[in-house]
Design a protein that fits this description.
The protein contains 14 helices and ten strands. It is of the alpha/beta class. It has two domains: 49 residues; 249 residues, 3-Layer(aba) Sandwich (Rossmann fold). β9, α10 and β10 form a beta-alpha-beta unit. The N and C termini lie far apart (45 Å). The structure holds adenosine-5'-triphosphate and magnesium ion. The site of magnesium ion (MG) has 5 residues, from α4.
């Protein structure tokens, strides 16, 4: 016979808080019987929910999601890692989260455990045909965040979009259809300032810039900020900078400390207080299909992403 679990035990298994479990019970996603002030939920039902991991997209509500584009044209600075871990951390605060993978490399989709090679549809279809309903393209994940995945087709979108009217605004239409269903939408951008990234900037309310604390990484920041100003002027007047996030920080080196101090001096008020340290545990977690919060919840980097989530959530 199935073992019976308490709401707390189910919350731990699903990686959500107990309020979310109670919501699942109310919605009929989980079945349980009430015992005193708690519920007893069959272990099998929890396993089924985990394996199907239905998207958490809910009927439209009056509040609209805050849309954050995670951008840096430099490769390998921690955009995808930040999108995924920040998303999971926000989900743990009880928020409904959608991650949009806008990088044809599809690393975010893969990190979140989506079988990218078997996908037949992705954000690409929604971009190229405005009649496409994006909702059925969204996947639930065991981490509790929803993902609108990418496939390699998206590489072609960069070229195909060029011939479309209002080509910078196609993602905005897709995002606006999804805003009422989530509290936060995070967009993981490719390492370029091409049309896909411009689409993300046009669709977003704010930009989060992961930045490695090294000389060459900071040089590109000026170009990125210039692009943001152009987008603000021409496409999205309301776009603001959420902050620059120092990533892969190695506090043992003088160089990294100097760059961080310089960054704070040159961009006062624009650099997050929280710093993401370099750690091999962060590198290992995607291979295990887990966020750092699930892989090693007490790790410094897991705590840092939770602190970042609190700061980002205040911006709503
Ligand atoms: N805090 C960290 N400590 C150690 N390694 C990290 C950390 N953050 C990210 N990494 C690793 O660095 C590599 C690049 O990170 P990530 O893929 O997030 O960067 P990106 O900016 O999305 O790259 P791309 O521009 O190619 O999309 C990955 O192997 C990732 O696991
Ligand atoms: Mg990436």
């Amino acid at each position: 016979m199935d073992r019976l679990l308490s709401t707390k035990q189910v919350a731990d298994r699903l990686g959500v808080d107990t309020k979310t479990v109670l919501r699942y019970l109310r919605q009929g996603k989980l079945k349980g019987s009430r015992i005193g002030r708690d519920y007893r939920i069959a272990e099998g039902a929890v396993a089924t929910l985990l394996s199907t991991a239905a998207p958490t997209a809910e009927p439209a509500t009056a509040t609209a999601a805050l849309v954050t584009a995670v951008v840096n044209q430099k490769g390998g600075v921690g955009k995808t890692t930040t999108t995924f871990n920040l998303g999971v951390a926000l989900q743990r605060l009880g928020r409904r989260i959608l991650l949009i993978d806008l990088d044809p490399q599809a690393s975010l989709s893969a990190s979140a455990g989506i079988p990218v090679a078997q996908l037949t549809a992705s954000v690409y279809q929604a971009l190229l045909d405005e009649a496409t309903d994006p909702l059925p393209l969204i996947h639930g994940t065991t981490s509790g965040v929803d993902v609108l995945p990418a496939t390699i087709d998206l590489a072609a979108a960069e070229v195909e979009l060029v011939n479309m009217t209002l080509r910078e605004l196609v993602l905005r239409d897709v995002v606006d259809k999804l805003r009422p269903r989530y509290d936060h939408i995070l967009i993981d951008c490719p390492p370029s300032l091409g049309l896909l990234t411009v689409n993300a900037l046009a669709a977003a309310d704010q930009v989060l810039i992961p930045l490695q604390c090294e000389y060459l990484a900071t040089r590109g920041l000026t170009l990125l900020l210039r692009t943001l100003t152009k987008v603000q002027g021409r496409l999205n007047r309301n776009l603001r900078i959420a902050g620059i996030l120092p990533t892969m920080f190695d506090g043992r080196t003088t160089h990294a400390n100097e760059i961080l101090a310089e960054l704070r001096a040159n961009f006062p008020g624009q650099v997050f207080d929280v710093v993401i340290k370099e750690s091999v545990r962060v590198k290992e977690s995607p291979a295990a299909g887990l966020s750092i919060l699930d892989y090693d919840g007490n790790h410094d980097v897991a705590r840092a992403y939770i602190q970042l989530a609190t700061e980002v959530d205040h911006g709503r």
